């Protein structure tokens, strides 16, 4: 569905934090291989709001300046996420939480209005295991605003930056199995409800944290899901792609090949079925992956989930992503 021209002009991005900016080889690799950056954690409310009376945008401003100085597009991540609420706000979920959350969103979107391309306005709204009929996660945002919180967030963001592409970002939509299928169904119902009431969601963010040897290559259920999303008139952003190799053999060359094949098969499927606005990886070089902590390999070897090796050399995964972009 993504035309050849669209594929060639796809934005390719990576998650970034200010500590990366002091690593010259990394910033050179980013400028060589990327045209989009996403703050890995420093634009989140728990970082900005760490001092209860004085928001701290210093780190986010540095990342925004790096992007602007180097002509990189900037994807804002993320305004409302249940895992990024400031300590001082976690206790209460009442009116002042609602006021504080809305004030944070409005102030942050207004601060960067016109300077960034897109926002993950709400991150990970679904948790079917929480038992609600609508599959919504029982979060402080739901407690404070009710099920309309998604509409509230998107309308507030659109009012303060009408030019930004507003994204609803979710994890696990690309997984196989009944739980993921339930989540995909809840996501379709959620989007149908929100679009029917005019909530300004333009794009579905699919985090795409894949697992080699577990990610189905054809994946008919996910393919059908993407077709439904396209039928709603929504574009897709691949927001946090990486491929965990914790199930792969130890040999690095074998792992690199399996990881590359996983990237290729996944992107071929998504680019076939969706209007993809951008593809971002969650880190660019293997040394910076969150997966070593989150998904350690049983043999203790360090993960090799990303596009560049620890010396910023392009791996088979990089070539696989580029080939998918070019439809080669
Ligand atoms: O850099 C500071 C360090 O100076 C300090 O001593 C230390 C202890 O507080 O914290 C360090 O910052 C940590 C940062 O990662 C860098 O390691 C933060 O505490 C920690 O919260 C932060 O975790 C991030 C996490 O989101 C929560 O914000 C991860 O980097 C980031 O990869 C992860 O990304 C999430 C996406 O936002 C949403 N999708 C899932 C994805 C993976 O969990």
Give a short summary of the structure.
The protein has helices spanning 4-8, 18-21, 24-33, 45-48, 58-69, 87-90, 95-111, 140-145, 149-160, 178-196, 220-231, 252-273, 291-294, 316-326, and strands at 11-16, 36-39, 73-80, 118-123, 165-170, 203-206, 209-211, 235-244, 276-281.
Structural overview:
This protein is α/β, with parallel strands linked by helices and 328 residues long. 43% of the residues lie in helices and 16% in strands. It is built from 14 helices and nine strands. The protein has an eight-stranded parallel barrel with strand order 1-2-3-4-5-6-8-9, surrounded by four helices. Strand 5, helix 10 and strand 6 form a beta-alpha-beta unit. Helix 7 packs parallel to helix 9. The longest helix is centred in the last third of the chain and has 22 residues. The chain is globular, with a radius of gyration of 19 Å. It starts with a helix and ends with a helix. GO terms for molecular function: hydrolase activity. Its EC number is 3.2.1.8. It catalyses: Endohydrolysis of (1->4)-beta-D-xylosidic linkages in xylans. This is Beta-xylanase. Keywords: Carbohydrate metabolism, Glycosidase, Hydrolase, Polysaccharide degradation, Signal, Xylan degradation.
């Amino acid at each position: 569905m993504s035309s050849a021209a669209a594929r060639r002009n796809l934005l390719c991005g990576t998650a970034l934090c200010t500590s990366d900016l002091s690593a010259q080889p990394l910033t050179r690799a980013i400028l060589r291989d990327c045209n989009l950056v996403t703050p890995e954690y420093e634009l989140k409310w728990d970082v900005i709001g760490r001092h209860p009376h004085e928001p701290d945008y210093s780190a986010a401003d540095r990342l925004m300046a790096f992007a602007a100085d180097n002509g990189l597009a900037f994807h804002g991540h993320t305004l409302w996420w249940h895992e990024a609420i400031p300590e001082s706000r976690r206790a209460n979920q009442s009116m002042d939480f609602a006021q504080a959350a809305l004030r944070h969103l409005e102030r942050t979107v207004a601060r960067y209005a016109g300077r960034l391309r897109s926002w993950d306005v709400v991150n990970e709204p679904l948790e079917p295991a929480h038992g609600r009929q609508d599959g919504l996660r029982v979060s402080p945002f739901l407690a404070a605003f009710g099920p309309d919180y998604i509409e509230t967030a998107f309308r507030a963001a659109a009012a303060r930056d009408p030019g930004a592409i507003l994204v609803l970002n979710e994890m696990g939509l690309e997984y196989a199995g009944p739980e993921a299928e339930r989540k995909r169904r809840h996501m379709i119902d959620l989007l149908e409800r929100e679009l029917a009431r005019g909530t300004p969601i333009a794009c579905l963010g699919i985090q795409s944290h894949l697992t080699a040897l577990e990610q189905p290559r054809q994946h008919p259920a996910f393919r059908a899901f993407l077709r439904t999303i396209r039928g709603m008139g929504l574009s897709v952003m691949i927001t946090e792609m990486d491929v965990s190799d914790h199930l792969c053999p130890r040999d690095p060359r074998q792992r690199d090949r399996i990881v590359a094949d996983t990237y290729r098969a996944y992107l071929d499927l998504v680019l076939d079925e969706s209007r993809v606005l951008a593809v971002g990886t969650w880190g660019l070089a293997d040394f910076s992956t969150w997966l070593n902590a989150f998904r350690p390999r049983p043999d203790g070897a360090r993960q090799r989930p990303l596009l560049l090796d620890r010396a910023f050399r392009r791996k088979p995964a990089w070539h696989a992503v580029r080939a998918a972009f070019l439809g080669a």
